[in-house]
Each structure stands twice: as structure tokens, then as C-alpha cells.
Design brief:
alpha+beta, Arc Repressor Mutant, subunit A, 2 domains, two-stranded antiparallel sheet, 18 helices, 7 strands
């Protein structure tokens, strides 16, 4: 099978918003990562500090599923959208804020939605002068978690209010998930016409709203942001090497299971023999990729003393500590415990 939307990458800004929620509820980041099976490297401070950084979509999906339960918030997505209103903006957001009218800004922004998620494929349509945004990832069969969708749609409303200076309400909101128990946060943002159990995730604004001028319109800024967005999209569109694709899959899944070459080949829509040949052409092998990734992560975890030896072995997909101990000796010439204690 081909890579699914869960196997792609998303903007690090989404992860940063989710970590704000964890910090607000005093949930330890590393403990959270270990509990739900996220590679700790995903939370590397250098990666989080880069606004153009990318993180595994699978890790972010797990956070969307776990944090609402851990925080006890049935309105998690809408609550987080309000909490993150002052968070750094994406290039698409800046395009809306710098465009002459709302409709022009939204149409510009959707061109660069892949910067938010590799597989984003939503569309904007005009209906009677109004605009409708259909949220879609992949071929449309993939369903994002409820709170992720509500967070995204709430952010759209907040952004449009900021752009126009008006307390805009969508003319219609359709959501594929079931009706939640309480709608106290939904109504002020989405109005009374919210359809649940719908066939698609859509948000619509009428003609009067779509034609509103943007109070922060700035043509120079729009050109600058557009150029930056184009360069990021070009970088994202470059086909990653097979080695990179394998590394991404392994990094996302190592805490849970050691992926076999057969499993990885199937996920990449290749035969085992084709995957081996492609890796050989890039000067490596599946075994070398696994070994190299494990070594790099092991040294990182132990050097920064994030985890003990047993925890590190588990996170790297080893079935027992002794196997990890032998591998680490082979890599570095010292034991994992000594490496950790000496802070190499």
C-alpha cells in the first residue's frame, strides 16, 4: 500500500500548540512521549524552535487522541484554539492577513496548505459570491481526529475575525464527527447552524463576509510571504530519498515495534527486492539505516540523560536490554551505562 496521511509530516507549529496544552496542564513532555509511543527526538528543542520544521504526522495524531483524554476536556480542540490565538502564524495565515479581501486571501492560502500537512488536499469554492472551504487530507477517506478538525476550523474563524476586525460567524459548518455533549464553545464561533455526522468537513462564509476588506492588507508583505511559501513548498515537493523515507517510518514506529523490511517495503508500495536495490543505489542498506538511526537516537537519549538504559532500549525497539548493550558496545566501545554517566 502507499503511504497514508498518517505517515506524512506536519508543520512543527501544530506540535508546538499541542505542547502548550500539555504544559498548561503540567503534563511532563518526555513522560507524555514515552506513554503514547512518540520518539523523544520529535520533541528536540532545536526542531521545536524552527518555525519551518516538520514532524511525523503519526506522532501528532497520537497527541490529538491522547491529550483530550488526559486533560479531561471534551472541548479540547476549541479550548486549544483559543489558548493558541497568539501563537506564531503559518505562511498561509500571513497571506490571509496581507491580502486585499478575505476571499482573495483564503484562495491564496489554500495553495500552500501542504505546508501544514504533506497530504492536505482541501479546496476552496465560491458559491453565490460566498466561499466554502472543504477540509480534506489524502483522498478524502482519511478522517482526522474530532479535536484536530474543531481546532483547525476555530483557528480559521479567529484568523478571519483578526483580518477583518469583525465578529464574523460562518454561514454554515459541517462536521463528520458525532455531536458532542456540550456546544457551549461551538455556538459563539460557528453559530447555530452546525451539522454533525455530515459527509464532509466544511466551513462556509457568505458573500458579505467574503468581500470584506482585510484591515491588515499589505501588498509588500504578501509578496514576501508568498515568495517564502513558494520556496518552502518547493523544498517539500522535492521527492525525499528512499533512505529518508525509511528513516521517517522507523523513527515514528521504533518505540512501538521494530519494523521489518517487508513491512516498510509494503508501506512504500515497493517489493522487498526493489527497496533493497534503491537503498543500495543510495549507498546503504536497510540494516545500516536501522543501525544508524538506533545509534544516533541512543547517543542522544543517553547523552542528554533523558532516559535510563532500559527505557532507551525499549524506545529503540529492542526486545531486551542485553541486545541493546551489545549493540552499543559495538558502536562506541563503551557500555550504555558508562556513556550516560560520563555525559559523552
Amino acid at each position: 500500500m502507499a503511504l497514508s496521511p498518517a505517515d506524512g509530516t506536519v508543520s512543527v507549529l501544530v506540535l508546538r500548540a499541542l505542547l502548550v496544552a500539555a504544559d498548561f496542564h503540567r503534563i511532563d513532555r518526555q513522560a507524555l512521549a514515552a506513554e503514547i509511543g512518540i520518539a523523544p527526538a520529535t520533541l528536540d528543542p532545536a526542531l521545536l524552535a524552527d518555525p519551518d520544521g516538520r514532524v511525523p504526522a503519526r506522532a501528532v495524531l497520537r497527541l490529538w487522541e491522547a491529550l483530550p483524554k488526559m486533560t479531561g476536556r471534551d472541548d479540547f480542540g476549541l479550548w486549544l484554539a483559543e489558548l493558541a490565538r497568539a501563537a506564531p502564524l503559518t505562511p498561509s495565515s500571513w497571506l490571509i492577513l496581507s491580502s486585499p479581501t478575505l476571499a482573495e486571501g483564503v484562495e491564496q492560502a489554500v495553495r500552500y496548505q501542504r505546508l501544514l500537512h504533506d497530504h492536505a488536499s482541501g479546496v476552496v469554492t465560491r458559491n453565490g459570491g460566498g466561499i466554502t472551504y472543504l477540509h480534506r487530507v489524502g483522498d478524502g477517506t482519511f478522517r482526522a481526529p474530532r479535536h484536530a478538525i474543531e481546532f483547525g476550523f476555530a483557528q480559521i474563524v479567529y484568523l478571519i475575525r483578526r483580518a477583518t476586525g469583525r465578529d464574523v460567524i460562518p454561514v454554515n459548518v459541517r462536521l463528520r464527527h458525532a455531536r458532542p455533549q456540550a456546544l457551549a464553545r461551538h455556538t459563539p464561533l460557528f453559530g447555530a447552524k452546525v451539522e454533525f455526522n455530515a459527509t464532509a468537513d466544511e466551513i462556509s462564509f457568505d458573500r458579505d463576509t467574503s468581500e470584506l476588506p482585510v484591515v491588515t492588507a499589505d501588498e509588500s508583505l504578501r509578496e514576501l510571504v508568498s515568495a517564502h511559501a513558494k520556496s518552502l513548498l518547493a523544498r517539500l515537493s522535492d521527492s525525499p530519498s528512499v533512505t529518508t523515507q525509511v528513516q521517517r517510518m522507523l523513527a515514528a514506529e521504533l518505540p512501538n515495534r521494530a519494523l521489518s523490511i517487508d513491512t516498510v517495503a509494503e508501506a512504500l508500495a515497493m517489493t522487498k527486492r526493489t527497496l533493497q536495490r534503491r537503498l543500495q543505489e543510495e549507498g546503504t542498506s536497510f540494516e545500516d539505516v536501522v543501525d544508524g538511526l538506533r545509534r544516533n537516537l541512543a547517543e542522544l537519549y543517553l547523552r542528554e540523560q533523558r532516559f535510563g538504559v532500559q527505557e532507551t532500549a525499549f524506545l529503540l525497539g529492542y526486545s531486551d536490554t542485553s541486545a541493546f548493550h551489545k549493540a552499543f558496545l559495538r558502536w562506541t566501545g563503551v557500555s550504555p551505562a558508562r556513556y550516560r554517566n560520563e555525559g559523552n
